[in-house]
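Researcher: Let's try something more involved. This one mixes different molecule types, so please make sure each is placed in the same coordinate frame as the others.
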Amino acid sequence: MRFVLGLGILAIVQGCASQVSIRSLPPEHPAAENAAAVESAAAFAAATKANGAETEADAAETKGSPAGSETGRASPGASETLPPVTPEDAPSMYTYDPWERINRFTYRFNARFDEAVFLRAANAYRRVPSPIRSGVHNFFGNLSEVDSVINYALQWRLTLAGRSLGRFVINSTIGIGGLFDTAARLKLPGAPTGLSSTLAKWGMHPGPYLVIPLLGPSTLRDGLGFLGDYGTSYGINIAGLYRGNVSWALGTVNAVDQRSNVNFRYYSTGSPFEYENIRFLYVRKRLIEDEGLRAKLSRRRARSTTQQENAVGEPAGQ
Amino acid sequence: MIFSDTSSAQESRIQRRLVQLTLAAMLLGATSVHGADSLAPPIAPPAAPGRPAGLADSAALRATIFGTPPQDMASMPSRVPLAEINIALPWSRPIPDVFWFDRKLRVWFSAQDKPAPLAIVISGTGNDGNTAKLSVLRSALYGAGYHVLTMPSPTFPGFIVSTSSTGVAGDLMQDGRDLYAAMQQIVAHLPRRVRITDVDVLGYSLGGANAAIVKSIAGKEGKLRIHRAVMINPPVNLFSSIGRLDELFALSIGSGDEGVERLYRRLYAELANLYRASDRVQIDEDFILGAAATALKTDAEYSAAIALSFRINLEDMFFAGDLYAGTGVVVDPKHPPKVGDSLEETQRILRNKPFSEYFTKVFAPYYLKHRPNSTAASLIADNRLSIIGATLRNDADYYAQTNSDDLILNEQELAWLRDTLGSRIAVYDHGGHLGNVGERQQIADMLDMLAGRWPGAAK
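Model: All components are placed in one shared frame. Result:
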């Protein structure tokens, strides 16, 4: 870690000293990207048509169909269990940020570190052939399934805990130690969760905005969640990867992999209000995600009530 | 169901970024709590003549937001190399604390392996040198054999801080001189292996006007010779075009605190309900895309999105100008903000300030002081393309492309462009403002103009 920091400081000093720096970036592939866009535009059009038909069919069906699993589509009646969010429910436009001063300094530190070290590493990493990169990405994704299993269990969402466990077992074995996401091909796509969601389920609010060194925008709850998730991984120490010498190398690769998958550059807006803008968007995004979680949980409660009612032979709905 | 896994892209990558930006812009709206100004402005703001932009037709608004559909895109090369150049300019001014990150001018460069002409492309109002539109133009130009250099708009905060000699952006001639000086520095610092046979400039929106001005300056000073200039959807009268966007804001969002707050609340609720129904694990790009297509449906919503994304760019320019000019509208000249200081309140105030206020309170006071014989009226007049009208009319190396339904032009302005450029302008029927950039015909015509193949080109 000290080595990485030292490298960062060196790069910052060097970056300030020179008048002109020319940095080569990964090339663009416009033809392939446009072809992909054409294809997905067609797929989208087809899906919209098909979905239009499905929605009508759904409306005719009764509630509680097996398709209404938590990761499947919402069943039409599901949203009725919670009243819809109205404009009056929207949180204030002010963001609770009592640690703003320190947060701003951390934000600046992160921006500098990112520019000098993280982004360079991520750009270099993007030159690695994509099958290797996706292998690495899958590998770390697979390791994080452990946290998902535990947290789904803590959230008492056992089906999903089972699914995460299944994914972990399949990908660790058939997927060769997690390098391939075989489970997704077997129609078991990933649905990661973590301690922050568990805390949300237990009723904890996001709390004040928090910028974490090296990690970036967060809230108190997300920060605790991150610590807890990391602590869990550290405690379980799968295959001895989280402790000892190899953990440093692995942690670095993990960080670079994650960074290379985030399309964000500090201060590319050039705006003096970037801190405000990012804070606003991050917190609203998390609040909306909490709304989604609440809706899922309430849908599940409604479903289990319906099933109980069915079990004693009463009608499912009024 | 709106969201399925295939919803990933109704739009191409280019439109994606725009949609994201628009939606982010819409979400960024916030209330303003500043007090009313009791003093009447001493300087009359520029008038916005012509049809109110809020009445632009639906197709034009839609095209402006969603851009060229991927299937209508010109064919693009399979691979475009890219490098980022950060350059500290010798004349740059001391960097204010709050702009510590904008020390150097950042531009993007794609080099051919062989000797080739260089195309320099200038971004639109408030934008940096690597926007989605620039990416499209870069691909097309690189594919046609040009070295391509893409530059930020002189109204982009990074440019204002690192490159502008005044810090008060928006003056066509001053911005043109700064741009031209920066271009010379950049070209001089390109690696030796890059061999340049000729230099052309292009720009879209405000960048189009900038490009023409840069060429006219180069014609007089001549250190870096510029051959041809192509303006894509340029404004004719800068301040009236911007005034039209102010008007669009007032019409679609409303002035005062309530308008923006109402928009924010409505969007928040809409996004929250869409997200609940989507059953996604987290908000990602696909969700935002689907949501944008769902949330933006009516002309009023399109207008609000366009107006708000413009206003957000304006906030930055306003802030920087006020800081450099020392005009004290939102920045106390004696105690400028430091790195740890909150700017939330400042941003709230700025969010409610239209361009006309930038003109009356920052731009005009600054330039009236520095240009002894000027008046508010002369400053407005200086920001029309007609200041180089004679050159545009007589020099056959200037070209333009625009749309008859471009929201930033009124009929007289379009007529002036046609009259001045004669056969050297292509006017398309549809596309709104920049809504056909990258489209086959637009790209083919642009390349013809640059190469001197266009009917009416200089011999």
